[in-house]
Amino acid sequence: MNKQTMGIHHITAIVGHPQENVDFYSGVLGLRMVKQTVNFDDPGTYHLYFGNEGGKPGTIITFFPWAGAYQGKIGDGQVGVTSYVVPKGAMGFWEKRLETFKVPFTKMERFGEEYLEFDDPHGLHLEIVEREEGDANTWAHGGVTPEVAIKGFGGATLLSAQPDHTADLLENVMGLELVGEEGDFKRFRSPADIGNIIDLKLTPIGRGQAGVGTVHHIAWRAVDDKDQLEWQKVVADNGYRVTPVQDRQYFKAIYFREHGEILFEIATDPPGFAHDESPDTMGESLMLPERYEAHREQIERKLIPIEVRDLD
What we know:
Blueprint: E1 8-15, H1 18-28, E2 32-39, E3 42-51, E4 60-65, E5 78-86, H2 91-100, E6 105-110, E7 113-119, E8 125-130, E9 152-159, H3 163-172, E10 177-182, E11 185-189, E12 197-201, E13 214-222, H4 225-237, E14 246-247, E15 252-257, E16 263-268, H5 296-302
């Protein structure tokens, strides 16, 4: 069975203090906080979701914030860099904005594109690139307007302990197209207009260590439940140990660790983030799965209070 994912659904990372996380991704980068909930396996910890105005797959970065947790090490077995895409002509705005908020950055070129590279407050590697592809993000916050706003993911750079095996998986199992090789990178593309470019580093750099400032997993898109079950079979038939389907409230998920040690998820596009809140109020309240509602008061006492603030 030949299948092809549309690309990235979401990326999930581990960070530090939750208010610092909210201030950076909402206050500096101008993303919408589309969901406040908790880690379903550790309900005393937030699970925060940021994306475009509607929380579209391909725009969502999610975080487990642990204040005071140990710093991780970015390395093999992880997403090394998360890439954001902005409209053509917006790069000057982002250079000035990063300077205004005293975020150090460097410029570099890869596959004929110019990137701004920088870190978030907890050490997560990010970059911004201009592209024509992708719908404008109509969410406006602070000084970030739709004309310059982040549309969603440009893609990601993968760091693999076994790059040849990861390349084979991306092309021959996940269905991405190999579109180029430059220096120490191979570039793959999916059919989507965002979250569609994957750069794979061809030389291992040493094993990463999970902790603050590292990506926990990268999730790929499944169209619906049926498509996800087909993916589950394809992954298993190719020799990977894949989990049963898990209900994550806003999508269903299956997980497997590929041979380069990166944790992959395949997540369904539906039901999305507006089924338990209205599209206008998404992200404003703490939403809990039904099994935790009886413990809401206890959970809220344990969580550090957060707010979306205008930092401009």
